[in-house]
User: Fold these one by one.
Assistant:
Number 1:
Amino acid sequence: MVKPVLGRLIEGQIYVKLSLSACDRAKTLVEPRQAWLNAKFMSMQSIPKLVKITTFNTWAIASKELRGYFTSPFAYLVMGVFWLLAGFVFVAILLSPEGILNQVTQRDRSGIPTPPVDVAYEFLRLFLSVIGSLSWYVLPALSMGLYAEERRWGTLELLATSPITNWVVAVGKLLGVLVFYGAMILPLLLLEAIALGGASPPINLAVPLAGHLGLLLMATAILSIGMFISALTESTLVAAILTFAVLFILSLLELLARSIGGSAGMALEHLSLIRHYSNLVQGVLSTSSIVLFGSYIVLGVFLTAQYIEALRFSRR
């Protein structure tokens, strides 16, 4: 009678030992997973902090660039010349003998039946087209010193070896010069409001929104390209000339595409900044135009960041 009891006790002890052993095995399986979940949770909690730090650093770089532009006599000179030419274009399009208002008046007086002209739309299309052309000459003058000045003053090495990532520095510099260009565009909005305020019927709001979006996207793409070229040299003049040369080549893409024809010509034509800007100015908001401008912007920032990263490794 004792043996079965002992046997049951022994079996019970064995069962308990086996149960404890199973718990230990389960614990060893659960603990790594729990540690992984905790690490993932902590990393998710750190994402907002990382975004906040990145945003702060980007805006700090942009603010530094903005202060440099607003304290530079050359920047004010560029701004003044741009406003003067824009004002001249505004008057020429509206009030010159060859302007829209005079042409419409002559058509009405002639008595010849002609299709109606949307004066507001034609004015905005012509005005933004000319402002875009002026920007091709102004933007290289703004981007030429983004990194060339750092090279000339010997601070590029410090910037390359700083704890701030090269992407943040490049985006911050690009944002700073873009905000300054936006400040140059703001007075032109007042001129447009004066010209379009009395339009009857009023112009479709989507048209000026698409046109100004195209202007900002094209400006950002050009500034991004100019920023990369500025990183290659310590001479601001050389950076401006090289940027002009690249823009001149890009302006010939559409003409070159027409001469080549075929699928290769279509591919070259799709790379034309002027073609996509013209579509947006006409109120045609297409995904392909936005993607193309975005590709130019990302390419310029990427090449700049990679070049500064290569410079960082060369200094080690």
Number 2:
Amino acid sequence: MAIGERIKFFRVLRGMTQKGLGERIGFSEKTADVRVAQYESGTRTPKEKYVEGLAYALDVSPLALSVPDIDSDYGLIHTLFTCEDIYGLKADRVDGTLCLTLGKNNSNYSTMFDMINKWQKEAEKFTSGEITKEEYDNWRYTYPEVEAKRVRDSIDEMRAKSKKS
């Protein structure tokens, strides 16, 4: 989710108007709503000082607004928070083990379940030695194209078998 989408998400969550948010961060009454609308639509990106102001006005961390740097621990956790907002991903405990779970009340549940399930199956193949690290990495780095190819290959194999029958 881009910074503009995050700004809008938190603005709506806080029950604020674009004009109200813009005025809180120091824009004039005339330009406040236009500037925030530009940020939200992505036609303009806020400078760092405005990101700080927006975060303060929305009562969130600046990391919650920014496109996260997943190479940092804080960037990663804010990415996971965004996944919670969009996909219903939750921190949970299952049999005492800390894990991430996918909320069933989300409109993307079946799609996300399917994708994460495929990922888990490939990871299991790697862990059991059925595939190599290189094959596992290839699957991860070429997903979803690799899955589409598998489906095409399976269909081609079924067609070839039916022609022989």
Number 3:
Amino acid sequence: MNCRILVVDLDGTLTLSRNTYELSVEALLALRRARDAGLRVVLATANGLDFALTIARYLGIRDVIAENGCLVYLDGETYELCSGDMASVDKAVLSTGAVAPSPQNKCRKFDLAYIPLVEDALERVAAAVGGGYVVQSSGYAIHVRPAGADKGAAVKWLCERLEVPCFQVAAVGDSDVDVGMLSVAWGIAVGNATESAKKAARVVVEGPSGVGFRDAVELILSGGACTP
């Protein structure tokens, strides 16, 4: 096995599909196999840190990248990789009438999430916040955060902090918000990933979502991933 760290997305990657929150049994068993093999597993999610840490505890994961890379919880310490006051941004987004705020926003600091109410919600939100912010859809919600921050930047920070070459870090994801980490690390996209995620990854496995994560873990443990 060439990989030392496994970074995995949550929604759409450890779940049964890209439109449910129910976790995949295949993914959970594969996650345990990865941990038992000695891989350091990091959960990388668009969710807020409090929620992510709660889920991570039940998954047996210690380290978390939350808010699409804006916050990192590593070895018991929280690091902020984003900055700025998002209150005015939130006001501008809600003034469009195109979205509703995620209940998690009360616990989020930099990456705000919104539920689309109209078909062109993404475009209207992007126009409202202007430059300086990233506006993306995860397939579950529309996310707005300071420019320059994403899961890829967080993985790069993680590599430097842990002194591990990024090619020895496997990342598995499914959506546009995973593109950064799939590009920076040794990226593996699940079979039903977005086209952008597939293009960013080195390998696209056949199985969708949780089954695809199982396929990715099999590839990693067989030594087929994390080659220079």
Number 4:
Amino acid sequence: MFRAATIRSYEEFSRSTGRRMGEALQKELRHAPDASWLFCAPMSGMEDLLKGICEGLGSDRIVGCTTSGEISSLGLSINSAVLGGIVTDRIDFEIIAVENLNTGSAAAGRKLAASFSSAPHYLQIFSDGLTGNGCAILRGIADVLGNDLPVAGGAAGDNGEFRQTLQFSGGKIYKDALCGIAFHGDFRLGTGVCSGWAPIGLAKQVTKARGKVVYELNGEPALNVFERFLGQHAEKLPAIGVEYPLGFTMPSNDANQKNHYVLRATMSVDRKERSITFAGEIPEGALVNLTCGDKPSILAAADTAAKEAKNAIGEVKPEIIFCYSCMARKIVLGGRTKEEIERIQTGVGHKIPMIGFYTYGEFCPIGPMPRNHLHNETITLSVLGLAP
């Protein structure tokens, strides 16, 4: 048995709003959910909203975060709250939160992974999008649970303000935290990952980098390279960088599948030391390209991700779609962002419940054999169904 549903509200965040949302979701599910997801705008009243939701659901088994745009079965919404839930007798869920992410992201990943009662079959994580290092989080999880566990989710947002993001776990609100929900049981998972950006120009080698900061490309200050490419638009850095992310090749685990460009969006520039900080790590020695995309190619990526996820789940009926897409895509797509969600629904199924958000970084494996990565400017899908 598997039932899923999503609820959306534009009402002012309050305890009564939360209670109505929780009651409405429970009515749709005909039972208190075994697990719930809350994604909402970073607005006042969130603590009361969450309390009310838990009261309405009769459960605090909830996970989620603040966003830069909310996704539900009803499509894209801004300055809203979306709530999703699952009732099933085939999957057991565990929800864990780890605080003080900024003191060590890899250590937080290890602590989260070690806190589960047994090894999950699938894991979703929601991290602080400003204080955490997504790549290090994934390394920490892999240290404990290995590289074969599929990990998906997103880095929390705050509507592009880049001031503070919040995470939700077990009815509590956290900041500077890593929250995770483990799936144990008998189910099928299909994932899809695609960006729509393509490499341009000659590849350049990262000759000096540390973590998320790139200092030199081909021995030249990284900011000089970007400024020469952007010309008169260089003064708009780092904002304009979302249109031209840096990409580098990650070899596929499948010989029949093409290599994947993992993208990195610019977050800040240091004009004195001529360096660029990106939203994810770029390894020293990597060959990188500037990339570009347009609205048609970015929207086509949603088609590709939906097809990948649907194909990966095989003949199993999809029961729920989790969509974690980058806020940079929303910026570039503008008024056409809603089309991205519509294409997913067309590709996977219009009647399949969907929930997710626009992120500050996306977690998802690439290829049929799980290989987890932090992505930027990418749409990622996880589609669940019951094993026959």
